[in-house]
Amino acid sequence: MLFLPYPKTRREELYDRENELKELEEAISRGERLVLLLGMRRLGKSSLLNVALNELPNPSVKIDVRKTYSEYSSVNRYIIGKILLSSLSGKKLVEEVKSFLSRVRGITFSGMKVEITSKDFSITELLEALNEYGRERGRVVIAFDEAQYLRFGGATKYDGIIAYAMDNLENLTFILTGSEVGLLFDFLKFDNPEAPLFGRYHHDILLERFSKELSEEFLRRGFEEAGFSVREEEIEDAVEELDGIVGWLSLYGYIRATRKLNHEKALEEVLKEAKSVINTEISRLFAYSPRYRIILKAVALGYSRWSDIKDYLTLKLGYINDSNFSILIENLVKYGYVEKKEGRYTIPDPVLAKVFREI
Ligand SMILES: Nc1ncnc2c1ncn2[C@@H]1O[C@H](COP(=O)(O)OP(=O)(O)OP(=O)(O)O)[C@@H](O)[C@H]1O
Ligand SMILES: [Mg+2]
Predict the structure, then answer these.
(1) Ligand 1 contact via 156 beta carbon (within 6 Å)
(2) Nearest ligand 1 atom to alpha carbon 47
(3) Which helix (DSSP H) or strand (DSSP E) does residue 262 occupy?
(4) What gap in Å lies between CA 359 and CA 357, rounded to an integer?
(5) Over the chain (359 residues), what is each successive 10-residue block's mean pLDDT?
(6) Which of 348, 326, 351, 324 is nearest to 336 (CA)?
(7) 339 forms bridges with which residues in the sheet?
(8) How distant is the alpha carbon of residue 143 from its chain centre?
(9) How remote is the CA of residue 227 from the centroid of ligand 1, in Å?
(10) Rounded to the nearest 5°, which phi and psi values hold at 114?
(11) Is ligand 1 within 6 A of the CB of residue 138?
């Protein structure tokens, strides 16, 4: 179902995105070692990744690093190793990879499961084993969804590990997705000569929002599929309000079609849902500084110049020096909540802009 409000896994559920899917699949089949799948939140990165991995003839493992971090408050090598191994466990895969994994220190097999049982475990050794397996199977794809969270690895330095794998393990492809694009690049540090990934080639695929026409067509098709009739003006208005952000469009469609709500009520529900999502997402940021809230509000209200936003903040919360203010606003850009274009700041997501106006 097109409107199903969870990350999609099959091509039939994915609207458009043929080009991006083809680009991703071709990069993998060409043997590229590092692919980045970038784009704002709710544009369908996880969905695209799922569909690509499902269609791939090669074995693959995927780790949702954001979820892992929120569950364990860390992504050290034992945690990531455990998840990598559990995604191999239970499948016929475990039989297939067993002979390769037997070289990895610190892991033990029990039936169809394989577990980390000692501190000797090294993620590099596990990748070396998967590389050997990849030699046999053409390639193994390792995907880190929301890879910017790998920065919380503590003593486990994933940038160094990925750099080592890129240089030495030719049968592995890494796919990293990231919605907090600035944070992801801060973590990968391709431009820093001191950093392990300095100058490494990466194939970037950027997911954009849908055009107005594509968005309207998405809603028409989804409602048709759900057997729910809506007026053309409502479709146009929904796209006006939600823009080409497929996550919001599908949520609107899902709520409307399943709960039989009218247009206005469904839009209200989307906003309500956005508020609750945002509150959880952003509360961590607000805990660092209450100023983030006011800056977001200022930008959402239409202040777009650096100095106007700073004035608004000063009026509300008192003096802040220039460099501290710059750090705060640039952080919001890195998190993707704020966009900076030609020296002007905006909130790229109209639904979030509405939420921030009221915070
Ligand atoms: N091409 C598509 N066609 C239909 N629905 C889609 C498409 N892409 C995404 N969706 C829907 O939009 C929502 C968001 O998608 P998804 O979780 O894949 O995005 P994301 O970019 O990974 O978001 P986040 O940054 O929050 O992780 C989901 O409900 C999904 O079903
Ligand atoms: Mg995602």
Answers:
(1) no
(2) 18
(3) none
(4) 6
(5) 95 96 97 97 97 93 95 95 82 76 89 87 95 93 97 96 98 97 96 97 97 98 97 98 97 97 97 91 89 98 98 98 97 96 96 94
(6) 348
(7) 346
(8) 11
(9) 22
(10) -135, 130
(11) no
- Distance (Å, rounded) from C-alpha 275 to C-alpha 294? 16
Q: Looking at ligand 1, which atom is closest to the CA of residue 222?
A: 4
With a 6 Å cutoff on the Cβ, whether 6 touches ligand 1 is yes
Q: How far is the CA of 12 from the centre of ligand 1 (A)?
A: 14
**Given this model, what pLDDT does residue 279 score?**
87
One-letter amino acid for residue 326 of the chain: S
* Nearest ligand, CA 44: 1
Q: What is the reported pLDDT for 103? A: 86
Length of the chain: 359
pLDDT at 89: 65
Task: Tell me, using a 6 A CB cutoff, whether residue 42 lines ligand 1.
Answer: yes
**φ, ψ for residue 252, nearest 5 deg:** -60, -50
Helices (H), the chain: 18-29, 45-55, 65-72, 77-88, 92-101, 123-137, 158-168, 181-188, 212-226, 232-242, 246-259, 263-288, 291-300, 306-317, 322-334, 350-357
Q: Which atom of ligand 1 is nearest to the CA of 2?
A: 4
The preferred substitution site among 22, 47, 146, 206 for testing ligand 1, maximizing ligand atoms within 8 Å of CB, is 47
Distance of CA 29 to the CA centre of its chain: 22
Q: What one-letter code names the amino acid at 334?
A: K
- Give me the amino acid identity at 249: L
Show the tokens assigned to 258.
């399943």
C-alpha–C-alpha distance, residues 97 and 197, integer Å: 28
Residues 6+ apart with CB under 8 A from 177: 36, 37, 38, 45, 46, 49, 143, 144, 145, 146, 147
Q: How many CB atoms within 10 Å of residue 2? A: 21
Ligand 1 atom with minimal separation from the 41 CA: 25
Long-range pairs for 270-277 at CB < 8 Å and ≥24 separation?
A: 270/242, 270/351, 271/351, 271/354, 271/355, 274/248, 274/351, 274/352, 274/354, 274/355, 275/355
Domains of the chain, CATH where assigned: 17-206 (3.40.50.300), 289-359 (1.10.10.10)
Taking CA atoms only, the protein residue closest to ligand 1 atom 9 is 44
Burial class (CB in 10 A: 0-12, 13-18, 19+), 169: buried
